[in-house]
Amino acid sequence: MQGQLFDGRTARPWSVTIQVENGRVVVRAVEEPSVGLDWPLREVRETLRSDGRYSLSRGDEDARLIVEAEGWRALAGRSHGEIKRRGRGREWALVGGLVGAGLAVAAVVFIGVPMAAGPLARHTPPELEARFGVSMEKQLTVPFRPCKTDTEAAQLLSDLGERLGKAADAPFPIRVRAIRAPFVNAFALPGGTILVTGRLIEEARGPDELAAVLAHEIAHVERRHVMQAAWRAMGAGLLLDAVVGGGSGAGQQLVVLAGGFADHRFSRTLEAEADDRAIQILHAQNISTQGMADFFDRLANRGDDPRLRQAAEWFQTHPDTAGRADKAKRAIRPGQPALSDRDWAVLDRVCRVVDAPKPKSRNAVR
What we know:
Strand order of the largest sheet: 4-3-2-1-7-6-5
Strand content: 5-15%
Low-confidence stretches: 247-266, 307-316, 361-366
Shape: rod-shaped
Oligomer: single chain
Distance between the termini: 93 Å
Radius of gyration: 34 Å
Helix content: 40-55%
Number of strands: 10
Mean pLDDT: 78
Number of domains: 2
């Protein structure tokens, strides 16, 4: 039979003769007998074109044969239904391969990366982690402006962080800074920097509550939890970029959300570990742990049904707040206040100090 050959090397279509001999497809160009193909018939893949003809190919070769459908079925001894079944078989094989590849990537992202994050964090050179933390701090302080750092209040906050840091075995000096943000939170960055929101300081009812929060974040630094989370995020991000081509498309967002949910149990484990270590740090500095119990107890909604509260814990990054308060109460030990009343009154205003308005220029247009 006759057909057209696109050899994959030139744009020219060759007029060819096609024969099937001894289970092989033999193709020769009419004008140039040296141009042709010799394919095993069982490896030929038929794809139905919109014009009713077949495009024949083999594996990943670039060459393509264009043939009339009825003539090819007669020559190859195949029915239309057989060709359709063969096509479906290849489609299902492709689907199976894609599903298998997807499961393999999911296993790496949600199991392999979290398992490797701990050892990677422990063996990350401190200087590398410190540089990473500086970069992260620069990014975070763009949306959340730092409070003034050249005030007595900022110095008292820094001194309290350094004092608590001496009771920990952190590989970095502890540096605490206050930022302006519309929520109650504190978070440690790689390299020993801890950012505390002004709203958290305002919510704290005394220096012991603030000291408890700082001790918790210092525990994260000491145990390299911060770098561990960074490795998880970086590892998953690299794999996701490779799978979905980067960007912020719906596919990537879906996988990121799934990864976040799968990681909640792991994060709660680290939070509970940081709570236990924070109690030890406070005890070492002879600071009462009553502040930790009071702070968590106030944040917890004691009116909730305990069963509902426990169920909701599965959807929270941190452990159940009421449970944390109960654990802190069981560990209460008397101690000295973290700061004097006078120093606390000063520190409490760390984010309320603002720059005086600049005087108008005499040359300003009136």
